[in-house]
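One example copied in:
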Amino acid sequence: MQTSVPDVLNFASETEETRNLYGMDSADTRDFGMQLLASRRLVERGVRFIQIQHGAGGAGVWDAHGGLKANHSRNAKSVDKPIAGLLKDLNRRGLLDDTIVIFGTEFGRTPGTQGSDGRDHHIYGFSVWMAGGGIKGGVIHGQTDELGFHAVENRHYVTDIHATIVHQLGLDPNKLEIPGRKRLDIDRGKPIYQIIA
């Protein structure tokens, strides 16, 4: 790894168009764009699992209990272009068919305010999106009530998302066990077949 990482992070071999596609031409998107371009380069080199986290402290934190509009506007501005660039780049290189891109969070946000300009953690209705890797494109599955408080249509628990990912990796989520730790059947999710191509 010590000998291969410098090559992965050497973006000089990428065209200016590709670097700009990831937002590396702007201070607002450069850092996250570099992470996503490095991820694409790792995928090309056979790395099978990559996790990118935006907001691991500092100015990128999404946990807006206050200043929500300014916080989320700034963060969305820094991730939207690089993510779109990653999807476009994976697709044009023929990598999206075999690569699952998942954009999710650990929880949503309450539809009501917390204080004057924040929102609290919310587990009853929030969004996750997936692209590539055999997931149907352009499909919206599920819906919240008119306030965005509760999931009311095609409700799923997080274990269903896990089971869908594991299924798309070619594994049976019901047979996946950690040695010495027994999972109860009720804790196992079911793949969301409605979103699988």
Notes: Residues 1-97 form one domain. The beta strands are 101-103, 108-109, 121-122, 129-131, 143-144, 151-153.
